[in-house]
Design brief:
The chain contains eight helices and 20 strands. It is globular and about 55 Å long.
C-alpha cells in the first residue's frame, strides 16, 4: 500500500481512539468540515503535485436554458487527454490503478485504454445538506455491528469516517437529489464480442432520508430508499415492475421487495431481490448487490477501512452520455474513446465474508470517491483469492441538483469474458430527471397492483 494510504489510515485510527464519549467524532474534529475539509468530508486541499486540484465549491452553475431531465452538457468540452494508459505502459501506473483496471488493460490490449483528463472536483450539494452533514458528524452512529444507522438525517452520515461500514453507509446515503426518474437500458455482452439489449425500463427513486421538511425523528424506523421500476422492453417483459424499500435499520429489518408479473397479473413478495441472487433484470449477468456498484444490506461482509489512495477513476462523464448508444458500446467494454478518467482521492474499503455468512463473491475491494461518496470502482475475488469480477461507474456532474451522480455502471466477469452496462441513458431524451416528490403510498404493493397492466 502506498505511503499516503498508511498515513490516512493512521489518522482514522487516531479519530477512533479519541471519541469514546461521542456517537460520531468530537466537535473539534467536526469543525474541520468548515476549515480543512469540504462540507461533505473530502480533503479541501489538492495534492503536492497539483495533479489533484483543491476543492473550490464544486460545479453549481446551471447552463442557460437547461430544463430538468435534459442531457447535461459537457462542462469541459475543449479538454484533451493528458495521459493515455494502455497495456504497454500500465506497469508505470500500478499504484494508481485497481487490480480490475489492470486486468482489463491486459485482457483487451488492442481496445481497452484509460484516457486521463485534467481532474476537476465538481461534487457539490445544497447548503442544507452541508448543514445536516455537519450535525451528523457528532451524532451519527451505527448499531448491530455496523448494519443499522441512527442519529443521522439529511446529509452524509459520517463525513469523517472511522471504519469501513461508515464509508459504505456514506455511499448508500450519498446526495443525488430527493426524487428522480431514470429511463434507461441494460446491455449485455458475451465473450464473442456480441451484445444485446436485455431490458428497457424506467426507475423512480426517492430518498426519504433527504426529505427537506423532515427532521429525522423516526430515525432507524424509516426507509432511506424507495425504488419502483417499470419495464417497457422487450415485449414479453413489458409491464413488469419491481418495488424496493430499504430501511435504515438493516440490522433487524430486511429489504421489502415486491414484483409485479404482467403474465400472471399479480404482485408477489420478492425476498430474493438482494445480495448474490442473479439480477434477472440484466439476464442474470450481475448480482443484485452489484447494482449501482453496491446496494442493500452490509450484513454479508466484514468491512475494513484501509485508507486513502490517489487513483485514476471515471469522473465527469457528461460527454459520454451525450453520445449515441452505438458509439459507446465496444465489443468487450465501453468505448475507450468516449470515457473520461481523472486522478482523484478515494477511500479504500475491503469487504471479507463475515463469519457464518455466504456470498458468491467472498472478497471485494471498493474505491469510494472522497468528494461525492460514490463507489467508483469495485474488484471482486473468488474463493481462491483470484480476481473474478470488476466494476466501474460512469459518474456525471449535474450542476442543477447540484451533485456528482453515479448510476450508470459496468460489471465484467473476467473469467467468462462477459460483461454488462446497466442504467445506460444514451439516446434517452431525458436523463436522470429530478421530479416532484411522490407520496410514500406510491411506493407500495397496492400501488404496484393498481398500476399493473399489459
Amino acid at each position: 500500500m502506498i505511503k499516503s494510504t498508511l498515513i490516512t489510515a493512521a489518522v482514522v485510527a487516531a479519530f477512533t481512539s479519541i471519541v469514546p464519549a461521542f456517537a460520531g467524532v468530537t466537535p473539534d474534529n467536526a469543525a474541520m468540515l468548515k476549515t480543512t475539509l469540504t462540507p461533505l468530508g473530502g480533503e479541501k486541499a489538492g495534492n503536492k503535485e497539483r495533479t489533484i486540484p483543491s476543492w473550490d465549491g464544486g460545479l453549481t452553475a446551471v447552463p442557460a436554458g437547461y430544463k430538468d431531465g435534459d442531457p447535461r452538457a459537457d462542462p469541459f468540452p475543449n479538454e484533451k487527454p493528458i495521459l493515455q494508459i494502455s497495456a504497454k505502459n500500465e506497469a508505470q501506473f500500478g499504484d494508481k490503478l485497481s487490480d480490475g483496471e489492470r486486468a482489463l488493460l491486459k485482457k483487451y490490449p488492442d481496445s481497452f485504454r484509460i484516457d486521463v483528463y485534467p481532474a476537476h472536483r465538481t461534487a457539490a450539494a445544497p447548503q442544507w445538506v452541508y448543514d445536516n452533514t455537519y450535525k451528523n458528524a457528532t451524532r451519527a452512529k451505527t448499531t448491530h455491528n455496523g448494519l443499522s444507522l441512527e442519529g443521522a438525517y439529511g446529509g452524509i452520515p459520517f463525513p469523517i469516517p472511522k471504519d469501513g461500514s461508515e464509508v459504505m453507509w456514506n455511499h448508500l446515503l450519498r446526495w443525488r437529489g430527493v426524487s428522480a426518474e431514470l429511463p434507461f437500458r441494460v446491455w449485455v455482452g458475451s465473450a464473442d464480442g456480441k451484445h444485446s439489449m436485455a431490458v428497457a425500463a424506467t426507475d423512480e427513486h426517492q430518498f426519504p432520508y433527504y426529505y427537506k421538511d423532515g427532521s429525522g425523528e423516526k430515525g432507524k424506523d424509516s426507509d432511506f430508499l424507495l425504488m419502483r421500476q417499470t419495464q417497457t422492453e422487450p415485449p414479453f417483459k413489458a409491464g413488469e415492475q419491481i418495488l424496493l424499500r430499504d430501511p435504515l435499520d438493516l440490522g433487524s429489518k430486511e429489504r421489502q421487495a415486491w414484483q409485479y408479473l404482467s403474465g400472471q397479473r399479480r404482485v408477489r413478495r420478492a425476498p430474493t431481490i438482494a445480495f448474490d441472487t442473479p439480477d434477472f433484470v440484466s439476464s442474470g449477468m450481475n448480482y443484485f448487490d452489484e447494482v449501482f456498484m453496491f446496494l442493500g444490506s452490509l450484513e454479508r461482509y466484514d468491512w475494513k477501512l484501509v485508507g486513502k489512495r490517489e487513483m485514476y477513476v471515471p469522473y465527469n462523464n457528461n460527454r459520454f452520455l451525450l453520445a449515441k448508444t452505438a458509439d459507446v458500446l465496444s465489443p468487450h467494454h465501453l468505448n475507450s474513446d468516449k470515457m473520461r478518467w481523472e486522478l482523484h482521492r478515494v477511500w479504500v474499503v475491503e469487504a471479507s465474508l463475515a463469519p457464518g455468512k455466504r456470498h458468491a463473491v467472498p472478497k471485494k475491494r471498493f474505491y469510494v470517491d472522497e468528494d461525492s461518496w460514490s463507489v467508483l470502482l469495485v474488484d471482486g475475488y473468488d474463493s481462491e483469492g483470484k480476481l473474478w469480477r470488476t466494476q466501474h461507474a460512469v459518474p456525471f456532474v449535474a450542476p442543477e441538483i447540484p451533485a456528482v451522480v453515479s448510476t450508470t455502471f459496468t460489471v465484467f466477469n473476467l473469467q467468462a469474458g462477459s460483461w454488462i452496462v446497466n442504467n445506460l441513458y444514451n439516446d434517452q431524451k431525458e436523463q436522470y430527471k429530478i421530479v416532484p416528490r411522490r407520496p410514500d403510498s406510491y411506493f407500495s404493493a397496492d400501488a404496484l397492483a393498481g398500476a399493473g397492466m399489459r
